[in-house]
């Protein structure tokens, strides 16, 4: 496999959050160009007590963000991700 075919896996290091009694919103930044990727390139995985987001193929690299154990239980079926210019917003329902 040539070096140009190797995709790097990088953790998302820039994140912020906002929370209320019903929601936790997590903002992932530093993902310039994410809005131009096909929808299937951003893969959220919500579980009752964890969150895992993968962004594949952004400028030849894969990015990942994970919370292995959330403070409160979330409702995976009501949780979602919104993609904006350079930012992913993850909304978790608690």
Describe the structure.
The chain has 94 residues and is an all-beta fold. The protein has one domain (3-93): Sandwich (Immunoglobulin-like), CATH 2.60.40. It is built from no helices and eight strands. It has strands at residues 8-11, 14-19, 23-29, 42-47, 50-58, 61-67, 80-84, 87-93. The strands form two sheets. The protein has a four-stranded mixed beta sheet, with no helix packed on it. A four-stranded antiparallel beta sheet has the order 2-3-8-7, with no helix packed on it.
Secondary structure elements and their pairing?
Elements: E1 8-11, E2 14-19, E3 23-29, E4 42-47, E5 50-58, E6 61-67, E7 80-84, E8 87-93
Parallel strand pairs: 1-6
Antiparallel strand pairs: 2-3, 3-8, 4-5, 5-6, 7-8
**How are the strands of the largest sheet arranged?**
1-6-5-4
Mean pLDDT across all amino acids: 84
CATH top level class name: Mainly Beta
Low-confidence stretches are: none
Coarse morphology: globular
Helix percentage? under 10%
CATH topology: Immunoglobulin-like
Taken in chain order, the helices and strands follow as: EEEEEEEE
CATH architecture classification: Sandwich
SS summary, helix count? 0
Count of folded domains: 1
Radius of gyration: 14 Å
Strand content: over 45%
Task: Give the number of DSSP strands.
Answer: 8
The CA-CA distance between the termini, in Å, is 44 Å
Structural class designation = mainly beta
Q: Note the main sheet.
A: 4 strands, mixed
Short summary of the structure?
By secondary structure, the protein is an all-beta fold.
Structure keywords:
single chain, mainly beta, 8 strands, 0% helix
């Amino acid at each position: 496999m040539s070096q140009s075919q190797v995709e790097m896996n990088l953790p998302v290091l820039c994140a912020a959050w906002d929370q209320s009694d019903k929601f936790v919103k997590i903002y992932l930044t530093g993902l310039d160009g994410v809005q131009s990727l096909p929808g299937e390139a951003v893969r959220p995985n919500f579980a009752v007590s964890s969150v895992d987001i993968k962004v594949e193929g952004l400028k030849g690299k894969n990015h990942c963000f994970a919370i292995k154990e959330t403070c409160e239980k979330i409702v995976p079926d009501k949780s979602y991700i919104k993609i904006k210019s350079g930012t992913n917003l993850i909304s978790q329902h608690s």
